[in-house]
Amino acid sequence: MNGLPKKYLVDTNVPKTANLALAPTIPEELTECVNACVEAVASIIKKGGLVLDTGDEIFTEYRNQLCMSGQPGMGDQFMKWVHDNRWNFPDQDRVTITKNGESYNEFPEHGGLSRFDDSDRKFIAVSNAHRAKPPVLQATDSKWWGWSGALAEVGITVHFLCPDYARTKYEEKMGA
User: Fold this and answer.
1) 60 touches 69 (CB < 8 A)
2) CA 156 to CA 46: how far, in whole Å?
């Protein structure tokens, strides 16, 4: 995929959205998004660059939502690839984060992030703790559109694979 950063975290909705390529029908507004996710996941499998946490919180989330056998979809192939290769990642790309209640010590302090989803805080904590602050690849979770400005203020970038979809859904939810 052109434009994919060298290092990144991958929100679980990216491989889950890639799996939709096998659905009998894909809603028209998601077609480009599904294709972008398939392309991104295929590139990750080919080139690597994924950053994870040492406690396997991200891996566990993947395992709970994707198929470990690598079948039937591209997102499941990503799961198998992560399973088979995560111990081969460079040490600096397996980041330690410290749980603190429903959040993490490494989650940045910023008023605009106070309502950030507890279940997604691990991705931000890992990015913030990594010396390169790699971006988070995001597909369909429109709430991230609203948090992207606050994240940028603390040095964390969200790389939206489906920016039109995320923005449109965010605006619909916010009544903009």
Assistant:
1) no
2) 25
Residue 37 CB contacts under 8 Å (≥ 6 apart), including other chains = 14, 15, 17, 18, 20, 74, 75, 139, 161, 162
d(CA 113, CA 147): 7
Domain spans in the chain, listed from the N-terminal domain onward: 9-174
Joined together, the tokens standing for residue 132 give: 């390169």
What is the residue type of 40? A
Between CA 129 and CA 134, with CA 131 as vertex, the angle to 5 degrees is 80
Q: What angle do CA 139, 140, 145 make, to 5 degrees?
A: 90
Contacts 24+ apart (CB under 8 A), 114-117: 116/147, 117/143
| pTM check: above 0.85 | yes
pLDDT tens across the length of the chain (176 residues): 456 678 999 999 999 999 999 988 888 889 999 999 999 999 999 999 999 999 999 999 999 999 999 899 999 999 999 999 999 999 999 999 999 999 999 999 999 999 999 999 999 999 999 999 999 999 999 999 999 999 999 999 999 999 999 999 999 998 76
